């Protein structure tokens, strides 16, 4: 089965109706569901998504994430080895604009052979992954 990585940017766009990418995110998700792909994410993305939703729209956003999105994701828990490789990549890149969460996402994607990302973050394309939509 084809696997597609799901980033915080896609999760937020799906759940927040006034997000600029909301309609596009819904169309992409519908297309992915028709394709019957496996949606993969990480524990860091879950944490980042919950923090973002909680701070911007409150606990109802977290409840919607938990009820509507989390169960559809195959969540890869970030282990020490993922963290170490991601931290080394972050330090080597010496950039302010790519988060540790993103670097862990890239590590998991490469490690699991995932080539596609449901994301509205150009860093995924910059790292060689195909963006959905």
In short:
By secondary structure, the chain is α/β, with parallel strands linked by helices.
Offer a few descriptive terms.
133 residues; globular; alpha/beta; Rossmann fold
Q: From the alpha-carbon coordinates, what is the Rg to the nearest angstrom?
A: 14 Å
The secondary structure category is: alpha/beta
Helix content: 55-70%
CATH architecture term: 3-Layer(aba) Sandwich
Main β-sheet: number of strands, strand sense, barrel status?
Answer: 5 strands, parallel
* Assembly context of the chains: single chain
Q: List segments where confidence is low: pLDDT < 50 over at least 5 consecutive residues.
A: none
Q: Which fold name is given in CATH as the topology? A: Rossmann fold
Side-by-side strand order of the widest sheet: 3-2-1-4-5
Structural commentary:
There is one protein chain. The protein is an alpha/beta fold and 133 residues long. It is 59% helix and 14% strand. α7 (122-126) links the parallel β4 (116-118) and β5 (130-131). The mean pLDDT is 97.
Task: Chart the SSEs and their pairings.
Layout: E1 3-6, H1 8-15, H2 22-35, E2 38-42, H3 43-56, H4 59-69, E3 73-76, H5 80-93, H6 100-112, E4 116-118, H7 122-126, E5 130-131
Helix pairs in contact: 1-2, 1-3, 3-4, 5-6
